[in-house]
Design a protein that fits this description.
- This protein is α/β, with parallel strands linked by helices and 402 residues long.
- The protein has a single domain, classed as Alpha-Beta Barrel (TIM Barrel).
- Helix content is 50%, strand content 10%.
- Strand 8, helix 10 and strand 9 form a beta-alpha-beta unit.
- The longest helix has 21 residues.
- Bound molecules: alpha-D-psicofuranose (PSV) and manganese (II) ion.
- Manganese (II) ion binds next to loops.
- The site of manganese (II) ion has 5 residues, from loops.
């Protein structure tokens, strides 16, 4: 990848998609921001393969921040670090602690990072019967308090984003009262929302299974939508790619939420079987999702949604996998931006069913947009190939000695 390769590539793309589209794609890639989660850098996801954890994984919050800052120095895209309250801001894994959050914020700032989305942790000790639907009053109270604390941290120390994912659900038909569970989570959410600063963007994530195998209390985007609508204007749906049944048209979910002008969020990853949480690949589905995000004008600018990579690298080195994911997201974004929308409209008007699909896929599937992403990086003054820069840097050997 040298300058000549970039310029020749850009020339080909300009010829096919036009100067304006290519310029816009470079700009979009430069501006796109995505958070990485602290827990992906740590031992999270281990336990399989005889407790194998990839060499060099971060053993404490300082190391997580060090790795995130290294990734940021190569990508310029992940200024914010997303944190989980009971993993990152707790002494005992039971309660959150504001003072620890303050310390983590300071540590982030010392490395040029910022605190990103705050995630209350509802799925550790004591959550076997759920969190907000737990029959144990103490458990439920503890989780409600943690949520309110999360709202305060998001507002005062973070970037105003609070992401909620609940493990509530059931394993067997008849185990819980499904209607009561829905009502309980709805009413409890309303109570905590009223105590969260009104400008905090509260995102409610859904998941069709896990840990519930028969039911989860918030199984799909419709449920999330109903719940967040009942809360207020600053609540929105959080989509995670791996949380759907197979073949779900996820980009259509994006299109509807964008059309509703809801402030939402997206957790990126790749899945083959279920919620695999693999690193992001630049596949067609991802590019189609980005097409709808771009179409909804929620990727950059004042209406942008909250974006995070939610992956757990079981085999692959953490830093390597996250760099690969950011690269994949930028490629997918570039493909989405260069779609020839004017010609798409013309073909639609003429009901050219096949031609419209071919035109769409010229960008989404066939275009080599690597020169766009490389140019964006070159203009930002960062390595044009961050994965190679990491491999050449000796950073992996360094962290394996930590
Ligand atoms: C749940 O599977 C999830 O997607 C939620 O976003 C959690 O916060 C995250 O993964 C980590 O467990
Ligand atoms: Mn998620």
């Amino acid at each position: 990848m040298d300058n000549k390769w970039i310029e020749n590539g850009l020339e080909n793309l300009r010829r096919e998609f036009g100067d304006e589209k290519v310029k816009n794609a470079i700009e979009a890639v430069k501006q796109f921001e995505v958070e990485i989660p602290s827990w992906t850098l740590g031992p999270f996801g281990g336990g399989r393969f005889g407790n194998y954890t990839p060499p060099g994984y971060a053993k404490n919050i300082e190391q997580k921040i060090e790795d995130a800052a290294f990734i940021y120095s190569l990508t310029g895209a992940n200024r914010h670090l997303s944190t989980h309250i009971l993993w990152d801001f707790s002494d005992d894994g039971m309660e959150g602690n504001y003072k620890i959050a303050q310390r983590v914020k300071t540590l982030c700032e010392e490395k040029g990072l910022k605190l990103g989305a705050i995630n209350p942790t509802y799925f550790l000790t004591g959550s076997e019967q759920g969190s907000f639907i737990s029959p144990s009053k103490e458990t439920k109270k503890r989780y409600m308090e943690q949520t309110i604390l999360g709202g305060k941290i998001a507002k005062e120390l973070g970037n105003g984003i609070l992401s909620l994912w609940f493990p509530d659900g059931s394993l067997y038909p008849g185990q819980i009262d499904l209607q009561a569970a829905y009502t309980e989570i709805k009413e409890t959410l309303k109570k905590v929302y009223s105590e969260i600063p009104s400008d905090v963007n509260v995102l409610v994530e859904y998941k069709v299974f896990e840990p519930g195998t028969y039911s989860t209390t918030i199984p799909d985007w419709g449920t999330s939508y109903l719940l967040t609508k009942s809360l207020g204007n600053n609540a929105g749906v959080l989509i995670d790619l791996g949380h759907h049944y197979h073949i779900t048209n996820i980009e259509q979910i994006v299109s509807m939420l964008a059309a509703e002008k809801m402030r939402c969020g997206f957790h990126f990853n790749t899945r083959y079987a279920a919620d695999d949480d693999h690193a992001v690949e630049p596949n067609q589905e991802m590019a189609r999702i980005f097409y709808e995000l771009v179409r909804g004008d929620v990727v950059i600018g004042k209406n942008k949604w909250a974006y995070m990579i939610d992956q757990a690298s079981g085999r692959e080195n953490r830093v390597h996998a996250l760099l690969h994911s950011i690269d994949s997201l930028q490629l997918s974004l570039a493909k989405a931006v260069i779609v020839n929308t004017a010609e798409l409209e013309n073909l639609r008007k003429n009901d050219e069913v096949i031609l419209v699909n071919r035109l769409f896929n010229n960008a989404i599937l066939n275009a080599d947009v690597r020169p766009i992403v490389a140019k964006a990086r070159w203009e930002k003054g960062i390595p044009i190939d961050p994965v190679k820069a990491y491999l050449d840097s000796g950073y992996q050997a360094k962290i394996e000695g930590r």
